[in-house]
UniProtKB/TrEMBL annotation:
Phosphoenolpyruvate binds at K56, G129, R157, Q205, R384, R425, K450. Monomer. Keywords: Amino-acid biosynthesis, Aromatic amino acid biosynthesis, Cytoplasm, Transferase. Belongs to the EPSP synthase family. GO terms for cellular component: cytoplasm. One of its GO terms (molecular function) is 3-phosphoshikimate 1-carboxyvinyltransferase activity. Its main location: cytoplasm. 3-phosphoshikimate binds at K56, S57, R61, S203, S204, Q205, S232, E353, H380. This is 3-phosphoshikimate 1-carboxyvinyltransferase. It comes from Protaetiibacter larvae.
Length: 477
């Protein structure tokens, strides 16, 4: 692993390669008993500089597009995590060549992807929405049956729209009619495409999965979303931009309709941006513990919804400054220094994946807050509305669930066991609470390997205090 001069003071963390990550995290995700992790308490204001590994959403889109492209592609500074490892494994099973090549990233090698003739196989979706919703559409282009399954909880995540979309495209699917994994699709080696109507109100990933493969359908695709709401619009924009970078234009004649003509997907040498959604708990930490957190490599233009943190966190009381690709969040003196987080009403429909750290922050606010537009989080890695209400409640907080959101009523919090439900964002939310509440233990910090295997090391790095920062007494909350 290399560090640039800028980061020379930051200690090294071990870099896992893709396959060991898959192996190391599989037992945890499938029932192995992980040891509880005691969240480190901040003993004073933070003064941290960090860089973060590649974006899950960009890495897994670029892997799929590279697999369907007209020649070999290179992914530079990709994410190496369980979700990307599952995507790689699934694509390899279908006949795609993927090899690690040396790169200049801090967090692991680059990837060279060589398209191959696609054949039916098996897909392990793990708990990864992108794998579960993107790869079956790729497998529809393959010849032969492909079985699709995942972790125990992933069998509860909504898949009916993918299954019905496959049928709508003329692909036979064997399933048990519950609209979830497992199922088997029977690829015939080509997809005719044409017109298709789907209800993507449970996840934007249904739209993205279809658009990514649509240029390879014989007649392209005219896709219409028929549901009342469509979450995570920036993720659909990301899909459209990734396609555009490979020469594929997606027409949008009206909201909720996308038209893709049949055409080649160009091979590309692409650099993956750092994962800005994974920056969430690190940036939020500045508001709780006080002090500053600087994240390097923040893109000046991006489709990642994590960029919204730079507009959301100031509403909660943070100051944001930018210096080129460095973003600094100043949280002032933090909650124990007497400056609580400001209560807000937030519609997070565009970026539900940001909700866990924000809801946790708001448990320390100066009044009641509401987060709305996030009903679809019940179909995420776990029912995140229930999980946040339960776990914040377990520490003495009060969170009321309603259909599409949460009302967070701050109360004095105490230590306790925080359950992650195998959900990386629940695990990091527990770490965040434990930054200022003594003795919070997270049952399964290892599940952060889903998108950020380095989380525990990076969290320690966050707490590596600047020796010149003023030490202050910790006050009871
Ligand atoms: O396409 C993607 O990469 C994602 C889309 C979103 O899914 P939903 O629309 O299901 O929320 C997001 O929450 C998820 O983390 C990643
Ligand atoms: C919802 C998420 O993931 P997935 O890609 O598995 O849907 C997430 O990372 O917050």
């Amino acid at each position: 692993m290399r560090y640039s001069e800028r980061d020379a003071l930051i200690p090294e963390v071990p870099v896992p390669s893709a396959d060991p990550v898959l192996e190391a995290t599989h037992s945890r995700a499938t029932g192995g008993a992980p040891a509880a992790w005691t969240a480190p308490l901040a003993t004073g204001p933070l003064s941290a500089r960090l860089t973060l590994p590649g974006s899950k959403s960009l890495t897994n889109r670029e892997l799929v597009l590279a697999a369907l492209a007209d020649g070999p592609s290179t992914l530079r500074r990709p994410l190496h995590s369980r979700d990307s490892a599952l995507m790689i494994e699934g694509l390899r099973n279908l006949g795609v060549g993927i090899e690690e090549i040396p790169g200049d990233g801090e967090f692991g090698p680059d990837l060279r992807v060589t398209p191959g003739e696609l054949h039916g196989s098996s897909i392990d979706g793990g708990l990864a929405g992108t794998v579960m919703r993107f790869l079956p559409i790729v497998a529809a282009l393959a010849l032969g049956p492909t079985s699709v399954d995942g972790d125990p909880y992933a069998r509860k995540r909504p898949m009916a729209t993918t299954i019905e979309a496959l049928r709508g495209l003329g692909i036979e699917v064997s399933d048990d009619g519950r609209g979830t994994m497992p199922f088997t699709l029977h690829g015939t080696g080509e997809v005719a495409g044409g017109e298709l109507a789907i209800d993507a109100s449970a996840s934007s990933q249904f739209v993205s999965g279809l658009l990514l493969a649509a240029p390879r359908f014989r007649n392209g695709l005219t896709l219409r979303h028929t549901g009342e709401r469509l979450p995570s619009l920036p993720h659909i924009r990301m899909t459209i931009e990734c396609l555009a970078a490979r020469g594929v234009r997606v027409e949008e004649p009206e909201p909720g309709v996308w038209v893709v003509a049949p055409q080649p997907i160009r091979a590309l040498d692409v650099q993956i941006e750092p994962d800005l959604s994974n920056a969430g708990p690190f940036l939020a930490a500045a508001l709780l513990a006080g002090g500053t957190v600087t994240v390097g490599g923040w893109p000046t233009e991006t489709t990642q919804v994590g960029d919204e943190l730079l507009r959301i966190l100031p509403r909660l009381g943070a100051t944001v400054t930018r210096d080129g690709e460095r973003v600094t969040i100043d949280g002032g003196v933090g909650v124990r220094g007497g400056a609580p987080v400001r209560a807000v009403d937030l519609d997070l429909a565009i970026g539900g994946e940001l909700a866990p750290p924000i809801a946790t922050l708001l448990a320390f606010a100066d009044g009641t807050s509401r987060i709305t537009g996030i009903g679809h989080l019940r179909g995420h890695e776990t029912d995140r509305l229930a999980a946040l209400a339960t776990e914040i409640g377990r520490l003495g907080g009060e969170v009321v669930e309603f259909d599409d959101g949460l009302e967070i009523r701050p109360r004095p919090l105490h230590g306790g066991a925080w359950e992650a439900y195998a959900d990386h964002r629940m695990a990091t939310a527990g770490a965040l609470a434990g930054l200022v509440v003594p003795e919070v233990t997270v049952d399964d910090i290892g599940c952060t390997a889903k998108t950020l295997p380095e989380f525990p090391e990076l969290w320690d790095r966050l707490l590596d205090r600047d020796p010149h920062a003023t030490r202050w007494e910790s006050l009871p909350l």
